[in-house]
Amino acid sequence: MMSYLHKVKPVDQRFHEWVDNINKTERIDKSIIAFNFGLFESEEGFTMYLTGSKVFDKDDDDWATNRNFEPKQKYFSFGNEFLKDKDWQDILKYAESLVQSYVKSEDFKTSIFAQAIAITVGFDDGELTLIKSQ
């Protein structure tokens, strides 16, 4: 008998599918130069979201509050099973590795993110980690 856990896709696979779907369904104009994969904690656990900005300032993370682009499928849930026994630092490190892995993938080269001058990851109330910078 197959358990519930065996039916659930791994987080990295679900993340890649989420980003691929955004690439297939969204169009951005060339004015969007930076993307932020933001993180926040709610009563349901940790969630990631994606926004794009027409501005970027490596010395001031407030650029990420400019939400000039928001995809229809803006949010990605890590899932309750994945979140067990993890704190915010674990989630941040894992989120950084997910985005880094995507940036290094073949799919990234033809994605809406490929021409961005910056891609960051971070919690809304913390410092952003620069994953890609031109």
Tell me about this structure.
The chain has 5 helices and 5 strands; from the N terminus they run ααβββαααββ. The protein is globular, with a radius of gyration of 15 Å. The longest helix is centred in the last third of the chain and has 16 residues, at 88-103. Helices cover 32% and strands 24% of the residues. A hairpin with a 5-residue loop joins β4 (118-123) and β5 (129-133). The chain has helices spanning 4-7, 11-25, 80-83, 88-103, 106-109, and strands spanning 34-42, 45-53, 75-77, 118-123, 129-133. The protein has a 5-stranded mixed beta sheet with strand order 3-2-1-4-5, with helices on one face. By secondary structure, the protein is α+β, with helices and mostly antiparallel strands.
Features:
single chain, 134 residues, alpha+beta, five-stranded mixed β-sheet, 32% helix, 24% strand
**H-E order:** HHEEEHHHEE
Radius of gyration: 15 Å
Overall pLDDT? 90
Number of helices: 5
What is the straight-line distance between the termini? 50 Å
Summarize the structure.
The protein is α+β, with helices and mostly antiparallel strands.
List the helices and strands and how they pair.
Blueprint: H1 4-7, H2 11-25, E1 34-42, E2 45-53, E3 75-77, H3 80-83, H4 88-103, H5 106-109, E4 118-123, E5 129-133
